[in-house]
Write a structure and sequence with these properties.
The chain is mostly helical. The protein is built from five helices and no strands.
Length: about 150
């Protein structure tokens, strides 16, 4: 087994993990959308009963950004697991989407009215770790493609 074969196997294993993570994330975000809608309705009804103005709605745009990232992660994971050259392009698109998400969240953090809203806008450590992992996998996939190991 050569180093190239080993690297390709690593890429394929991480592809399977990407697929599983993406499916988990899609399910999680679908549930979040449902719960956010239900909680917004409950808060609106409660505010009306108490005669108070309703609270600002949750940031559903963030949820849709995360769903887009999960779809790209799923596509990249399938391409990685199958050892396709398409994995390089999908991982590059995923990196671009993640950078745009970080920029969006940074703008929301800077514009936040309260410290709590600013902290809520900040991407969590798992999201940052996912970005670093994606950088490494993009480099690995690019190297494997350059060496002709991907189909």
């Amino acid at each position: 087994m050569t180093m190239l074969d080993l690297a390709e196997g690593v890429l394929r294993v991480f592809g399977v993990l990407y697929v599983g993570g993406a499916l988990f994330m899609l399910n999680s975000q679908r549930t979040d959308l449902f719960l956010d809608k239900a909680l917004t309705q409950l808060e609106k009804m409660t505010a009306e009963l108490e005669g108070k103005p309703p609270r600002a709605p949750e940031d559903t745009g963030r949820t849709w950004w995360l769903i887009a990232g999960a779809v790209l992660t799923l596509a990249a994971g399938i391409a990685m697991a199958l050892g396709l050259r398409l994995a390089v392009a999908m991982l590059a698109l995923l990196l671009i989407q993640q950078i745009a998400y970080f920029a969006r969240q940074r703008a929301r953090e800077m514009a936040a009215a309260t410290e709590e809203d600013a902290l809520d806008a900040r991407p969590n450590q798992a999201t940052r770790n996912g970005f670093y992992s994606c950088c490494a996998h993009t480099i690995l996939a690019g190297w494997l493609d350059w060496r002709g190991a991907l189909e």
